Amino acid sequence: MKILHLIHKIQNRGAETFACQLANHQEKRGHNVKVFALFNGEANLPLDNEVFCLYAKERNRFLDFRAWKKLALIIKDFQPDIIQANAGDTLKYAIFSKKIFRWKQPVIFRNASEVGRYLKSPFQRHYNKYLYRNVNWVISVSEASKLDLLNHFPFINQHTTVIPVGIEKTKLDKPNLSEYKNAKNIVHVGGFSFEKNHEELLEIFKFVVERNLNAKLHLVGDGPLKSKIHSKVQSLGLEDSVIFYGFVDNPLDYIIAADVLVLPSIIEGLPGVLLEAMYCNTPVVAYNVGGIPEIVTSDTGLLIEKGDKKKFGESILEILDNPNRDQIANAHSIVLSKYTNDIISEKFIHLYQEILER
Q1: pLDDT tens digits, 208-257
Q2: What is the DSSP string of 238-295?
Q3: Is 296 in the same domain as 154?
Q4: Which domain holds residue 37?
């Protein structure tokens, strides 16, 4: 089978990373796979082969005839059986290229978040309605993402399914944070964007550090709001307790060394970082948003209602004082049995075959 993956940008973000990992597994299973990014970037994505780029222009992303044509020429040359559009603007480019240049291959869209959160105007709703009317299938990352999609576009009901994100099996033998081995280490991994809710995380951490002066908060990631968060750290007087790392090649080195991983996001699909923490036997505390309650339950971690900063802080302190070993073991077992990429990639291939046989 020939598979063409579209990703939004050459950037270190969950959707792009998972698409490349998925492509690797599909290639290993004997399929011919290419990955094309709409927009250029400087990230080193985890793809065994080259990541190609359309060099689309972000300022023209609503009317980028040149990139639509370029995609059509790539499809004509490669002749893929399936085009999978992986989040971001990829569905837009795939559908308009297909409509204008009349190629026939089915388009699958991987819905990695909650689309309703981004529909702010009637124009956006009608625009997205057109796109979803012309897609062959939608793969949502969680049941919550699927339900959100169907709430806004119920006509897609017969053409959607859920396949979760997966993680890579890897050796866990390089724990970082050795210079903080005598501290209580709290780790957050995620880009500095409004969805990740860093400002509220700092308020939660302020509550924690006032009760455990030995606590340290390690922020792994980069993004447009990083300087703003730096300023808030200073305004809260947390300079000695919060450490910034920027983007790192292997966040597992930090996660495995943590006493707890925290995720107080306000929007999520199904965050792979929680699965990575469970794989590392690191306890988790997260807000009850998106698909998070599908993996964080009373058996696997601590789930907090969104906005309850006090409860979130108390839960962190609870784990720092007395981690629940049964939860940690259950979470690790579930990840190994359901959420590794060798298992997940097979689900994608089976769905492709079903679509092609229709």
Answers
A1: 999 998 999 999 999 999 999 999 999 999 999 999 999 888 899 999 99
A2: -TTTEEEEE--S-THHHHTT-SEEEE--SS-S--HHHHHHHHTT--EEEES-TTGGGT
A3: no
A4: 2-166+340-357
